[in-house]
Amino acid sequence: MLSLLAATASVADPIQWAELGLTPGIDLGFFTLRWYSLAYLAGIVLGYWHLSKMIKAPGAPMAQRHADDLFFYCTLGIIIGGRIGYATFYEPSLWTSLRFFQLWTGGMSFHGGLAGVLVAIGFVSWRGELSFLRVADYIAVNVPFGMMFGRLANFVNGELWGRPSDVPWAMVFPGAGPLPRHPSQLYEAALEGALLVIVLLFLFWRTRARYRPGLLVGVFTAGIALARFTVEFFREPDAQLAEFAADTGLSMGQWLTIPLIVLGVAVTVRALARPPLASGQAASGAA
């Protein structure tokens, strides 16, 4: 997409986001089905479909009934955790406003959603007597689908734009002033989404990574945190946190990803240092 945008742009005449013909959703007359909501739905449904396919391969740590439970509880974790995380770290005023419940307007935190998913995995694993780490491995492979769709929806909505720039594909976003900016939403869709999808699918289907508990979730955690840390250099900080970024040298998103990078690397190293599970041996609790 970036190459297409670059081909139609020039330094003297930056791309106007408003002229791309993008709409916030599908107008049903009485209701607009927003792309932001559809992006979450598409990521969850695709992740559920692929998880169901994964557990049919040798060595699965769970049965289909566990995947069904995870589909339900992880969805709740993404929505509730994502909103709580955004209100806590990015816009505390939401705690005293009914806007907290207006999810269709945007405002979800990756870190909060991740925490919600971990709680969901912990609950399902505890109730089903499953290995938390191995279940987390399988879920981690599917999370980048949702990240990719979500960031594309941010671009379609014209929100979370990047910093001012003179790159050929820079564009002017309504509400962001007259300066052309990085389309950082597309950078995030590529790094946090598409790239991680390729890496994790390759590791799962083409290597024996599934037999090393913690390896897939470790690679996912370190990878997505590094991607987010990198993209934050091109993304405009939230208006209410611009002063925080200027004072500390890093954005709130970058500070929150540093512990994830350390954790992801540690989990990956631990997984590689330990002996793998026996080939084809299903974990306890699978049926």
Automatic annotation (TrEMBL):
EC number: 2.5.1.145
Record field: transmembrane: 28-49, 70-89, 101-126, 138-156, 186-205, 214-234, 254-273
Gene Ontology biological process terms from the UniProt entry: lipoprotein biosynthetic process
Chain coiled-coil ranges: none
Cleaved signal peptide residues: none
Molecular function in Gene Ontology: phosphatidylglycerol-prolipoprotein diacylglyceryl transferase activity
GO cellular component, one term: plasma membrane
Top-level division of the source organism's lineage: Bacteria
Keywords: Cell membrane, Lipoprotein, Membrane, Transferase, Transmembrane, Transmembrane helix
Subcellular location field: Cell membrane
Topological type in the membrane: Multi-pass membrane protein
Binding site for a 1,2-diacyl-sn-glycero-3-phospho-(1'-sn-glycerol): 151
Predominant cellular place of this UniProt entry's protein: membrane
Function: Catalyzes the transfer of the diacylglyceryl group from phosphatidylglycerol to the sulfhydryl group of the N-terminal cysteine of a prolipoprotein, the first step in the formation of mature lipoproteins.
NCBIfam families referenced in this protein's UniProt entry, alphabetically: lgt
UniProt-recorded name of the protein: Phosphatidylglycerol--prolipoprotein diacylglyceryl transferase
